[in-house]
């Protein structure tokens, strides 16, 4: 069993406290799935049916945090943490030479910034915009939506992380 060092979600509280604590629990779960592994294990494509890696998930979720909280809710224009390839595709999933310490530091710093943005918001009804002129997208999202979406995003990827971790060293845990 993996050691469980997660902050338990609020079971009785207002909506913001409930949503933010569930999101933090999902963040803690990702960290738990990666704990104690070597750089090689974190980069390992442990399942033959996918190129997913635990390190790729960490880098991807840093990008997702950045995009939704800093850019959409916070109104910033923060470009991706990792470069794009020659075709313009993101490279967060390409981890053969990636530095796990850099990836975790980036993810943890981004989560801190995300928490600060949420804490500073007057309410869950605060809105932000996602604009991608090249693709003709201009959408408005509430903080409530973003928190709910991020819980879903982490939960899905934590399922991937659970399978990867078990394939790497047999460790299991919720």
How far the N terminus sits from the C terminus, by CA atoms, comes to 9 Å
Give the tally of structural domains. 1
Cross-sheet strand order for the largest sheet: 1-2
Write down the overall geometry: globular
Characterize the quaternary organization of these chains.
single chain
- Remind me, CATH topology? Four Helix Bundle (Hemerythrin (Met), subunit A)
Structural class: mainly alpha
Count of alpha and pi helical runs: 5
Strand content: 5-15%
Low-confidence stretches: none
Give the CATH H-level superfamily: dinb family like domain
Main β-sheet, in a few words?
2 strands, antiparallel
Number of strands: 2
Helix content: 40-55%
Cα-based radius of gyration, to the nearest Å? 17 Å
The ordered string of helix (H) and strand (E) elements is HHHHEEH
